[in-house]
Amino acid sequence: MSNSANHNSSVVVAAGPAAFSSNAGHTPAATGPIRHLYVHIPFCARICPYCAFYKDLLDRSQTARFCEAILRDLDKQCAAFAISAKTIYFGGGTPTALTTSQLEFLLGGFHQRLDLSTLEEWTIEANPGSVSARKAALLRKLKVNRISLGVQSWDDRLLNILGREHNASQAERSFHTLRDAEFRNINIDIMFGLPGQSTEQWKATLERTITLQPEHISAYCLTYEEDTEFFLRQSRGELKANPDCDAGLFEMTMSILEAAGYQQYEISNYARPGFSSVHNRACWSGKDYLGIGPSAFSTVGMRRWQNLADYRAYADRVLSRQSPIGSTENLTSEMKRAERIALSLRTGEGISSALLNDRQQTIEEFVSLGLLRQSNGCFVLTRAGRSLADSVAEAFL
Ligand SMILES: C[S@@+](CC[C@H](N)C(=O)[O-])C[C@H]1O[C@@H](n2cnc3c(N)ncnc32)[C@H](O)[C@@H]1O
Ligand code: SF4
């Protein structure tokens, strides 16, 4: 999951750019070294009609300059903050759309600039259409230890509707290529609620995913995001969301994945024991993180900022020693608290009772409705509650 959009939740985690003032002032105070880095690589070989992440069609004449800009931005962050990285997450877009030698230059640059002795998890998002044995071996050699593979569906007809650059057998080959390169922590992204997708098709997608035994599965309900082709087609009546059907598919997802040994540690995320994403858990629990690259958010202390989205403008700014920050916002304690509630409610650990001490009545109502339960000093969604997570979160905000 990227840090620039928040799928499957109606909760707005970071205010949109319009809510920010332009440009940051002085360096915000961090309470300790920054432990989490997010790097946004916006290139995609094809643009999928449902996707609202910041991305652009791959232009090979721009990528080398872009990689230079990312490393220059990293230099600036290293000068401004003490960084002792525990997790690095390369998201997109499609980081694997870069060539093997560009990835070598880029990741090698991270090795040169950062002390990676405390690094626990380095994730790269990969599209099955751009995985090769050579690329996989290089990523492994450069200490990437987690791959998030965007399979979306194992049905070729649905993959075609989704405008994907790969078919199901290519996706399966990519998975094996990654395993052969000794990746022992692989996530597979799949989506339900797709146009024309039957219950049987989704069940088959879950079962085929389980057969591959990935360590982690992200199962997202398709959202019709504004400014996407799918959203336009939905507003013209050509595509229809079906919330009742989606709720049934979500129920089925929880049952099938739990029976197969995957723990649902967040509404859309399931992992075999010991394989939940360290990076995502840190962000959901409100830890500071730095975002590098176009459109990336950073949050340090009470300050949040977002880089310019346009990758050419981002690179122009960074390479001419100007700030790439497009907007910045001072967070209040109340905003941080609301965000913590919204994000932690979606997790298996739940919300600490301390965050909710003035909301006794609301809690009691949800407990009596069977949507919340108490566990280890926290309030956690019950199975019935997980289907209504967004509505429960809204009641607390
Ligand atoms: C940032 S995308 C990057 C993955 C990679 N570029 C790819 O497509 O294979 C991360 C994941 O978000 C999910 N996603 C993207 N758009 C979505 C939408 N509109 N609704 C639900 N999930 C979505 C997909 O499962 C995708 O794999
Ligand atoms: S390849 Fe991934 S990031 Fe690119 S448009 Fe498709 S879903 Fe979005």
Could you characterize what this model shows?
37% of the residues lie in helices and 21% in strands. The protein is an alpha/beta fold. The chain has two domains: 17-284, pyruvate-formate lyase- activating enzyme, CATH 3.80.30; 333-397, Arc Repressor Mutant, subunit A. The structure holds S-adenosylmethionine (SAM) and iron/sulfur cluster (SF4). The site of S-adenosylmethionine has 18 residues, from β4, β6 and β7.
Any idea what the shape is? globular
What's the count of strands?
A: 17
What do we call the CATH homologous superfamily of the largest domain? tm_1862 like domain
Q: According to CATH, what is the class of the largest domain?
A: Alpha Beta
Give the count of structural domains: 2
Q: Roughly how much helix do the residues carry, as a percent range?
A: 25-40%
Bound molecules: S-adenosylmethionine, iron/sulfur cluster
Unreliable spans are 4-25
Structural class, by secondary structure, is alpha/beta
Radius of gyration: 21 Å
What is the level-2 CATH architecture name of the largest domain?
Alpha-Beta Horseshoe
- The spatial strand order of the largest sheet comes to 9-10-8-7-6-5-4-1-11
Distance between the termini: 24 Å
Q: What characterizes the major β-sheet?
A: 9 strands, mixed
- Strand-residue proportion: 15-25%
Q: Can you tell me the CATH topology of the largest domain?
A: pyruvate-formate lyase- activating enzyme
The number of helices is 14
In round numbers, the mean pLDDT is 92
At a glance:
This protein is α/β, with parallel strands linked by helices and 397 residues long.
